[in-house]
TrEMBL record:
CDD domains: PBP2_Maltose_binding_like. This is Maltodextrin-binding protein. Belongs to the bacterial solute-binding protein 1 family. Residues 27-48 are annotated as: Disordered. SUPFAM superfamilies: Periplasmic binding protein-like II (SSF53850).
């Protein structure tokens, strides 16, 4: 794990060489209209980067493609789809499917010929898809992808030594704060608690601090900040689960303290949209969120900043980090056209356009070093947290973790259940599920 994190940090120093570094989604989204126009494309992104292989590698006659992605990518992908059709004569249809739902949907729809040709999902879902033989290895554009993208991104979208993905962006979550409500980001949770004494008013739906309580993706940071971990041996040893060790238990107990002092809500009471609404209306001062939220906050004209998560008991909070990438359905009717589209959407120019439109921090090294990215204050905030992040495991056993640990956190938070008991039960369920698969 440490080696992998060092590789990630070293790679991201490429980003920080100008002033910060290129990251993925959300943070970098503070590129100004002027900066966007200077680095933006008026031509179809990717035309110059498909490379020599393009001359021999062409779409199948009569090809048409479908791509799955979240709704916040619809405008970008529809624009890019038109550019791809103009370049290759292949129409592209966007279908909204949540990123974390795609692999499970691919399991049934892929072999049936009903799935999209190109998908976009986080790297931690790669293991299940790859071991099931549902993805086409990225061999045609392997050399270009390896050369152009930061090493951590390439490693993340590879499985068992095989490159599958076409990296789009790197990401982690951090603290987003409303500067009109709190001038400086709190460095510790003691600072958060002190601020809450003058700001919190739950009866008026006014909160100092919040996140998506039902998402273990965020809750992991509280367990990990005091010594909890997912799997041992750099997240490859599923027999070693650290979600119920002493550090994880201390983190779970701290969650109960946060509920008492900051968020007297149940886990189901606040989701992404509710929290976004609170932040936009000034009823929430501090938000744990990722690069994907930045475009909406910018569009609303909010005066906000991004900073590392507050320290817990003197320890930096360890967030999950990830790599978002395009993948090609192994059962696509038009595999050559699909590979060309995945490449087209993941070139330097395409990643820059996605940064400008949606604040996604590029995985491409040259794009990450572009002044529009590297000089961006929001990007630098996310990258500061990135240094304290750990990559989500991509082994298939990760799929056994989410439901049991989410239920345990819900019991701890909503019902006040003993933290050790709830986490022990969750780990027992995880081990049983792994053993049954």
């Amino acid at each position: 794990m440490k080696k992998w994190m060092v590789l990630m940090a070293a790679s991201m120093l490429l980003v920080t060489s100008a002033c910060s570094g290129g990251g993925n989604g959300g943070n970098g989204g503070n590129a100004s209209p002027a900066a966007s126009s200077e680095t933006g494309n008026t031509e179809a992104p990717g035309n110059d980067e498909v490379g020599a292989a393009e001359e021999e590698f062409a779409p199948e006659p009569g090809a048409s493609l479908v791509i799955w992605d979240a709704n916040n990518q619809k405008a970008f992908l529809e624009e890019m789809g038109k550019a791809f059709e103009a370049e290759y004569g292949v129409p592209v249809k966007f279908e909204e499917v949540g990123n974390t739902d795609q692999v499970s949907k691919l399991m049934t729809d892929g072999p049936a010929g009903l799935a999209a040709d190109v998908l976009l999902f986080p790297h931690d879902h790669l293991g299940n898809a790859a071991t099931a033989g549902l993805l086409l290895p990225n061999t045609v554009f392997e050399d270009e992808v390896v050369a152009e993208n930061v090493e951590n991104a390439v490693k993340a979208v590879s499985y068992d030594g095989i490159l599958y993905g076409y990296p789009r962006s790197v990401e982690t979550y951090a603290l987003i704060y409303n500067k009109d409500l709190i001038a400086e980001a709190p460095e510790t949770f003691d600072d958060v608690f002190a601020f809450a004494e003058t700001f919190n008013d739950p009866s008026q739906h006014k909160y100092a601090f919040a996140w998506e309580l039902q998402q273990f993706y965020y809750n992991f940071a509280f367990l990990a900040s005091q010594g909890g971990y997912m799997f041992g041996d750099d997240n490859t040893n599923s027999a070693d689960i650290g979600l119920n060790n002493d550090g994880a238990v201390a983190g779970a107990k701290f969650l109960q303290e946060i509920k008492q002092k900051l968020l007297p809500l149940n886990t189901g009471d606040i989701d992404f949209d509710i929290k976004k609404g609170l932040f936009l209306e000034g009823s929430l001062a501090l938000d744990i969120n990722g690069p994907w939220a930045i475009a909406d906050y910018k569009a609303a004209g909010l005066n906000f900043g991004v900073a590392p998560l507050p320290k817990v008991a003197g320890n930096p909070m360890t967030s999950f980090s990830g790599v978002q990438a395009y993948y090609v359905n192994a059962n696509s009717k038009y595999p050559q056209a699909a590979q060309l589209l995945a490449r087209f959407l993941s070139t330097k120019e395409a990643q820059m356009k996605n940064f400008q439109q949606n604040s996604l921090i590029p995985a491409n090294k040259e794009a990450a070093n572009d002044p529009a990215v590297s000089n961006d204050e929001v990007t630098k905030g996310f990258l500061a947290q990135f240094e304290n992040s750990t990559p989500m495991p991509s082994i298939p056993e990760m799929g056994s973790v989410w439901n049991p640990i989410t239920s345990a956190i819900s019991e701890i938070w909503n019902d006040g259940k003993d933290a050790k008991t709830a986490l022990d039960n969750a780990v027992s369920q995880i081990k049983d599920s792994i053993g049954a698969n």
